[in-house]
Write a structure and sequence with these properties.
By secondary structure, this protein is mostly helical. The protein has one domain. The protein contains 6 helices and no strands. Helix 1 runs antiparallel to helix 4, helix 3 packs antiparallel against helix 4 and helix 4 runs antiparallel to helix 5. It is flat. The model has no long low-confidence stretch (mean pLDDT 89).
Length: 171
């Protein structure tokens, strides 16, 4: 299973927040799994504070919050934080993918040359290695496989889009 990164966080936080607001039971481990260490410490501190308020008696009852309310506040805070860092996370992810692409390409060229291939053969082989790794080729060729059904569906979708544009123009 791939490791979760910051680009997944917003979706997961939103889902858990929706579940809590809807009154669904969300295990604490699921909430802790999407928070970072600092946020987990804040959540624990906020809950301890609520427990201390309860010890002070009924006079502070208006300030009491349930565990669910504390969790909702923490998830809202984490969501706000995640939204502010998502652009940087995508840039980081793109940089890592580009570095991997370059590494695979040049490693494959070196391996091809070591096997006695010519420069052109080594480059072609390196581009094939990129394709096998699921990365974009350096020569710009699109080698994705499209079955007969995929092609037919693409044509149908294109036709539907064109007919919707024609309908919009008629109105």
């Amino acid at each position: 299973m791939p490791k979760l990164d910051a680009t997944h966080t917003i979706e997961r936080l939103t889902r858990r927040l929706g579940q809590l607001r809807a009154g669904e039971e969300v295990p604490a481990k699921d909430i802790r799994a999407i928070l970072n260490d600092e946020q987990i410490a804040e959540l624990d501190a906020a809950w301890k504070e609520q427990q201390e308020l309860r010890k002070l008696g009924r006079s502070k009852a208006a300030l009491w919050k349930t565990k669910r309310e504390v969790q909702i506040e923490m998830l809202e805070s984490a969501l706000k934080s995640a939204r502010s860092t998502v652009v940087e996370a995508w840039k980081q992810k793109q940089m890592k993918a580009t570095a991997r692409q370059v590494r695979v390409y040049f490693d494959a060229i070196k391996a091809g040359e070591d096997k006695g291939k010519t420069e052109i053969q080594a480059k072609n082989w390196a581009n094939n290695e990129l394709t096998r790794a699921g990365l974009r080729r350096m020569d710009g060729k699109d080698v994705s496989y499209h079955s007969k059904r995929d092609i037919e569906l693409a044509r149908m979708e294109e036709g539907l889009r064109d007919s919707e544009k024609d309908d919009d123009r008629d109105e």
